[in-house]
Every structure is written in C-alpha cells, then in structure tokens.
C-alpha cells in the first residue's frame, strides 16, 4: 500500500467490500497475526468432550482465519455490523467445506497446527473448522448482542472493539461479552494499542486508543477478572505502513459465582 491519505473530499471506500483489508492485513501471516493466533490458542479454555461454544464478536471477514487457532470440535458463532463481511465469511466457509482453500487460510491453519503438534493437514483442519460454524449474523457490538445470557465458553474478538466510535460503545460491548459468557467463561481480545488511527487502502481510519491500564479498569468495571494484559510491539510496521506499532492482548474471566470482589 502507498500509505497516502485520500485527498480531501475523496469518498472513503469500504476497505472490507473492496478487499483491501484482506489483501493488506491477511495476505501474509505476519508478526501480528501470528502473535494474535498464538494468544487465542494459549488462552482458549480446555474443551470438555462436547467442545467449546465460541463467539467471534466483530468477526469481520476473518472468522475462519481465527477459528483455526482454537483446538477441538467446537460450536462457532460470529457476528459483525457489516453485512459484506458476513457474506465473505459465509463464502469462505462454503468454499472450505467443499474442499477449496485460499493461501491465507492455509498459512494460518498450517501455523496453528504446528503450534498444536497436530497431525491434520491444513486442508482437513479448515474443513473441520468450517463445519463447526453454527451461525453468522449482522449485529452491533454496542447494542444488545442477539444471544441468550450465560452460554459461551469463549468470546473472542480481534481488532474490532477499538473500531467502535466512542468509549460508551466500548463499555457496552464489554458488558455484552460478560452477559453472554457462562460463569467461568473467558474473553480473549486482540486490539491495536496506543493509536488513534490505522491505515488501509491509503486511508486513515479512526480508532479508540486502547491501553493496558484503561482496559483493566473497564474489565473490572463490568466484573471481569483480568488474567492477562500484554502490550506487544509489532514488527509488521517494518514492511507495512499500518499507522500503529503496538497490540494489546487481553484475557479475562467471568466469575464462576455471583460473589465478585472488585479490585
Ligand atoms: C479491523 S476489522 C477486524 C475484523 C476481524 N475481527 C479481524 O480480526 O480481522 C473491524 C471489524 O469491526 C466491525 N465493526 C465495527 N463496528 C462494529 C459494531 N458497532 N458492531 C459490530 N462490528 C463492528 C467492522 O465491520 C469490521 O469487520
């Protein structure tokens, strides 16, 4: 990408509909996607024989991409505000379940399998994961999520909460994640940190500037127990003009009982 800003007055394109987001951020596994995937794998709860019930909140076009990092025979759900992204995910899932794969998914699956010392081929793994997807929907992170309370073992969300327009929406999304998790269920977040914009398709797109301390306060305010907050310096700016340099990796747990001690 050029990194040039669009001239004033130029209409802002939908970087998801144009495919620019996928091309610029998923054509190579890169440092960030590797770290994010490994983090999801590390913090995903251990599955019982029935597998995990997983929600990818703000899944964008990448639900299948991140799904490969959670082992087991799971039940996967996802939603996003942008219907184009949900159509893209549905397309990838249909393709994978019929045995057709693209290079980006294969690269992610291959890395995930190596991390898990799994004997599966990337193709088998992607096909299995595609078959584990139970629902995809269009919904708003900052409003009531269309799921009953207390049902998910894992809510995961990559690079989405910081795209919300204001902190009130961010807080509302965290509260919804807490509501839909079962007691003892886990939240795994990957967010751009310390940045108020990111670049795609020559545009600068606004972000909420997330920090570890700010995230901790917000999680505690909605009764999460904070398990991990890792501020990671990315090496991807060495080859991509992305407009930010750090990620925040967050893991938090919903209390197993109603007796929550605020810290
Ligand atoms: C940078 S993309 C990340 C997508 C994907 N999770 C990933 O890891 O690549 C941000 C996503 O957040 C979604 N999003 C933004 N605001 C949202 C909202 N209010 N509710 C649900 N999704 C939203 C966008 O449509 C987009 O798919």
Would you give an account of this structure?
The chain is of the alpha/beta class and 263 residues long. The protein has helices at residues 20-26, 30-43, 63-67, 83-97, 103-115, 122-131, 167-180, 212-221; strands at 53-57, 75-80, 133-138, 152-158, 181-193, 197-200, 203-206, 224-233, 246-254. The protein has a seven-stranded mixed β-sheet, sandwiched between helices. A two-stranded antiparallel sheet has the order 6-7. The structure holds S-adenosylmethionine. S-adenosylmethionine (SAM) binds at residues 16, 58-60, 62, 80-82, 85, 140-142, 158-160, 163-164.
List the keywords:
disordered N terminus; globular; two-stranded antiparallel ribbon; single chain; alpha/beta; binds S-adenosylmethionine; 263 residues; 8 helices; Rossmann fold
Portion in beta strands: 15-25%
What is the N-to-C succession of helices and strands?
Answer: HHEHEHHHEEHEEEHEE
Query: Structural class given helices, strands, pairing?
Result: alpha/beta
What separation lies between the terminal Cα atoms?
A: 44 Å
Give the bound compounds: S-adenosylmethionine
Give Rg in angstroms. Answer: 18 Å
Question: What is the name of the CATH topology?
Answer: Rossmann fold
- Low-confidence parts: 1-11
Principal-axis shape equals globular
User: Considering the protein shown, what is the CATH homologous superfamily?
Assistant: Vaccinia Virus protein VP39
* Residues in helix, %: 25-40%
User: Would you identify the CATH architecture?
Assistant: 3-Layer(aba) Sandwich
What is the number of E strands?
A: 9
The largest sheet has its strands arranged as 3-2-1-4-5-9-8
Summed over residues and divided by their number, the pLDDT gives a mean of 93
Number of helices: 8
The largest pleated sheet is described as: 7 strands, mixed
What is the total number of structural domains? 1
What is the top-level CATH class? Alpha Beta
């Amino acid at each position: 990408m050029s990194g040039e800003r669009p001239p004033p007055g130029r209409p802002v394109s939908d970087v998801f509909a144009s495919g620019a987001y996928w091309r610029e951020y998923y054509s190579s596994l890169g440092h960030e996607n590797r770290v994010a995937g490994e983090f999801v794998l590390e913090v995903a709860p251990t599955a019982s024989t029935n597998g995990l019930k997983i929600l990818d909140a703000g899944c964008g076009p990448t639900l299948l991409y991140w799904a490969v990092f959670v082992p087991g025979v799971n039940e996967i759900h996802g939603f996003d505000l942008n219907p184009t992204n949900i159509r893209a995910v549905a397309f990838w899932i249909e393709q994978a379940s019929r045995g057709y794969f693209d290079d980006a998914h294969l690269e992610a699956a291959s890395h995930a399998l190596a991390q898990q010392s799994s004997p599966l081929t990337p193709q088998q793994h992607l096909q299995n994961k595609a078959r584990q997807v139970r629902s995809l929907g269009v919904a708003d992170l900052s409003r009531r999520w269309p799921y009953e309370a207390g049902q998910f073992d894992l809510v995961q969300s990559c690079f989405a909460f910081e795209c919300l327009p204001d902190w009130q929406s961010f807080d509302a999304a965290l509260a919804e994640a807490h509501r839909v998790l079962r007691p003892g269920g886990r939240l795994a977040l990957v967010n751009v940190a310390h940045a108020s914009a990111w670049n795609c398709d020559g545009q600068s797109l606004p972000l909420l500037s997330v920090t570890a301390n700010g995230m901790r306060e917000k999680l505690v305010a909605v009764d999460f127990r904070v398990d991990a907050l890792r501020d990671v310096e990315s090496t991807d700016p060495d080859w991509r003009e992305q407009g930010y340099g750090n990620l925040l990796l967050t893991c938090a747990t919903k209390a197993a009982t109603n007796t929550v001690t605020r810290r």
